[in-house]
Amino acid sequence: MQVLMTVNGKPMSAEIEPRMLLVDFIRETLGLMGTKIGCDTGQCGTCTIQVNGRSVKSCLLLAVQADHSDVKTIEGVAQNGQLHMLQEAFWEKHGLQCGFCTPGMIMSLLDLLEHNPNPSEDEIRSWLWGSLCRCTGYQSVVRAVQYAVEKMQQASVAEFATAQAQTRST
Ligand code: FES
Ligand code: FES
What we know:
Elements: E1 2-7, E2 10-15, H1 22-29, E3 48-51, E4 54-57, E5 70-72, H2 85-92, H3 102-115, H4 121-127, H5 139-169
Parallel strand pairs: 1-5
Antiparallel strand pairs: 1-2, 3-4, 3-5
Helix pairs in contact: 2-5
The chain binds FE2/S2 (inorganic) cluster (2 copies).
């Protein structure tokens, strides 16, 4: 079957088997290896990407189900060589060790922060239920998310102040 979708802002089309999983399409057909395969049965979350702005486990979807969708993978998160604040926070707060779970966690947590920009610790922990990590014990991941929230709030206050100053000067 022919599929057509936007992946990380670029239109893509390909002829694929109808039974092909979305995760295999992303990794094998598109060569985007940042999305990992852990369990292949919807339990570990390492294959998490975003489809139309919501996080999904890409081993649970067929590629044809994402036809005409807007798909985002970990490769599409940094912009112009600049890491997203959440990625920087993982770096700063040691939110990873081996890093295998990290792309899926980032894609999932971006969905959380997009829809709940100021989550409580309980909300962060409950969101992380969908992502298994065998290394960190989650403590440093939670700290990284809290750090990212703080940085994002500071950035939006600074952005607001700059916009106000520009309005006053015009
Ligand atoms: S590989 Fe998809 S949830 Fe584990
Ligand atoms: S950092 Fe190793 S599995 Fe999470």
